[in-house]
Design a protein that fits this description.
The chain has helices spanning 76-79, 316-319, 475-485, 517-527; strands spanning 14-18, 24-32, 36-45, 52-66, 73-75, 99-103, 106-121, 126-135, 138-140, 143-152, 157-165, 170-171, 177-179, 186-188, 190-200, 209-218, 227-233, 238-240, 249-258, 264-271, 291-295, 330-340, 350-362, 381-383, 386-388, 391-396, 407-413, 419-421, 424-429, 433-443, 448-458, 491-492, 502-503, 551-552, 555-556. With 572 residues, it is mainly beta. The longest helix is centred in the last third of the chain and has 11 residues, at 475-485.
Length: 572
């Protein structure tokens, strides 16, 4: 679970963006003289989830530019600043399809929603992703820097820096530059070290976050190469370097909040650009590592040339002084290096080059909230599809399938009010008519599909004389007919008939299109063994008559005398 929070800034400085998949970002922004654009109170809501804080504050903490010939070593954030007059007034042409956010008299941020391509791709399904892009432009010397913050609909945040403008310094030495003009002028090669400062407060509470380092080292002595995960908690302020061979990364996790699987919610820092690495001279100790974690101190703002107020350190290396991180508000610092070798294409204006990194949610949700579930396919067989009531039908749904998971539920509705569950089942239809049987299948991600078929149930074939459809022609049937003849019973066309009624199609034993006492007499004759030409198919289940018999021991059947018949008398 996470905490809901109200915005802590006024409307012009509040950004709230929802995505097509239901995810949502909310944050505040402000302009500062040195930092330029700074973000505060950054919250993410996953699709169908709860709004939870990720960052208390995020900013660019330094752009360090040492030139190869050591002719200059700039600290653009603290020397020039990215705010005020150096923060550009953007034009609509720079923000196609977006909205410009204004501070004072200038439009300083471009807010855009952009497609980012595949968010996920499965078997037969795919989902296109989006991100919220916020960028500003700050000028330092001849350079224009473009800090970009991308907030993805999967909860990831990408921190990107673009650098463009004009080459600022030139040299005459081939050792330190590259020719860029017709007269042989050489642009001086140089480094851009970009640093970000991220004050994490996962889930509101600042003092319960923890940092862990992941390394995947090759197992010593293994016959086949295997990589073994090592997780190292960083319990004191630390500086760490990228280790490409061990796939090193870091995550910050909450000490209390968990996802639906009971695992701690966290964000993992994923290095994106690790091709170049600058380790400067002894007087630039902050360049010794790529990643730092410190205990929050309000005066520790900038990686280098930090204002030394109230004894605050001069640079990031000073900040890391062994303080415990237990129950502390944690700040992560991360740097990315790009070595710029000028080329002809950098004149008169250089193409933008981009560098950065990302943080991605790890176990923030119990499953991928962006994954599109391929629904199951319902299919089944029914045997038989028709017959006389009562009709028992067997149903088999083994043909139902799910391409990207498994079916977790089979739900049957038989059309007569009855239901059942299970992959296979059976049902007895006691009423006549057409019944629509529907199978609904549900997969393990909640997707559903349904299929139907029709079962036709006909009236039971009750033989002539069996007016109560009990399988026997007997005195009870004769009584029913007599009572019907004197209007003490009603008739029905449904087999079996409702209790107490007579099944009319079985009554006309004589074939005269009537149901009366004559039919009752014929039924009685057949019941006691007196054969007649009307009831050759009628018999008693307990005393069947051989209708092919032509004579008895005492002579022909037709010649025998019939015993007296006593019809029951029903008083009206």
């Amino acid at each position: 679970t996470g905490a809901q929070a109200e915005a802590e800034c006024s409307a012009p400085y509040l950004v709230t963006q929802s995505f097509a998949n239901g995810a949502r970002w909310q944050l505040c922004w402000e302009q500062r003289n040195l930092d330029g654009i700074l973000l505060r109170k950054v919250y993410f809501t996953p699709p169908g989830g709860i709004q939870t804080q990720v960052l208390a504050m995020a900013s660019i903490s330094q752009v360090h530019v040492p030139y190869d010939d050591n002719s200059a070593r700039f600290h653009d954030i603290t020397d020039d600043g990215f705010g005020n007059e150096n923060l550009n007034d953007l034009t609509p042409a720079e923000c196609p399809g977006g909205a410009l956010l204004r501070d004072g008299s200038k439009d300083v941020i471009c807010q855009q929603i952009q497609l980012r391509g595949h968010a996920t791709k499965g078997l037969g399904v795919q989902e296109q992703g989006e991100w919220l892009s916020l960028f500003s432009v700050s000028t330092s010397g001849e350079y224009n820097y473009i800090p970009v913050w991308r907030f993805l609909d999967d909860g990831s945040i990408e921190m990107i820096m673009g650098a463009t403008g004009k080459l600022q310094r030139f040299t005459t030495s081939n050792s330190f530059g590259w020719p860029v003009r017709a007269d042989g002028t050489l642009g001086t090669s140089h480094i851009h070290n970009y640093y970000w400062r991220l004050d994490f407060d996962l889930g509101e509470k600042a003092e319960d976050d923890l940092v862990e380092e992941f390394n995947y080292a090759l197992e010593a002595g293994a016959a086949a190469p295997r990589r073994v995960l090592g997780v190292t908690p960083l319990t004191t302020e630390s500086g760490r370097s990228i280790a490409r061979q061990s796939m090193r990364s870091w995550r910050i996790r909450d000490g209390m909040l968990t996802n639906g699987q009971g695992r701690a919610i966290s964000y993992q820092l994923e290095p994106m650009t690790v091709n170049h690495r600058d380790v400067g001279p002894a007087n630039e100790p902050w360049t010794a590592n790529d990643f730092y974690v410190t205990k929050f101190n309000a005066c520790e703002k900038y990686v280098s040339h930090n204002p030394q107020i109230n004894g605050c350190g001069n640079n990031l290396a000073d900040f890391v002084n062994g303080e415990s991180l237990t129950d502390a508000d944690l700040v992560l610092w991360y740097g990315v290096t790009f070595h710029h070798i000028p080329r002809d294409e950098d004149e008169p204006y250089m193409e933008a080059h981009w560098d950065g990194f990302r943080i991605a949610p790890r176990d923030w949700t119990a499953a991928n909230p962006l994954a599109v579930n391929a629904p199951p396919t319902a299919a089944f067989s029914a045997t038989p599809l028709s017959g006389a009531a009562p009709l028992t039908v067997s149903f088999d749904a083994t043909a139902a399938s799910d391409t990207d998971g498994q079916i977790s539920a089979y739900q049957w509705a038989f059309g007569d009010g009855a239901t059942a569950t299970g992959q296979t089942t059976s049902h007895t239809f006691t009423q006549t008519g057409d019944f629509t049987v529907t199978l609904t299948v549900v997969d393990d991600a909640g997707g559903q599909d349904a299929a139907s078929t029709t079962i036709t149930v006909a009236a039971a074939a009750c033989q002539a004389g069996d007016v109560n459809c009990d399988g026997m022609v007997d005195a009870a049937d004769a009584l029913f007919i007599m009572q019907y003849d004197v209007k003490l019973r009603t008739a029905s066309q449904t087999a079996p008939p409702p209790a107490g009624t007579l099944y009319a199609p079985a009554c006309d034993v004589s074939g005269d299109d009537a149901c009366n006492a004559a039919d009752a007499l014929l039924v009685l004759q057949c019941t006691v063994g007196i054969t007649n030409r009307y009831c050759s198919a009628a018999h008693s289940a307990s005393n069947p008559i051989d209708t092919n018999q032509s004579e008895t021991e005492n002579g022909p059947v037709d010649a025998q005398s019939a015993p007296p018949i006593f019809l029951p008398v029903v008083e009206q």
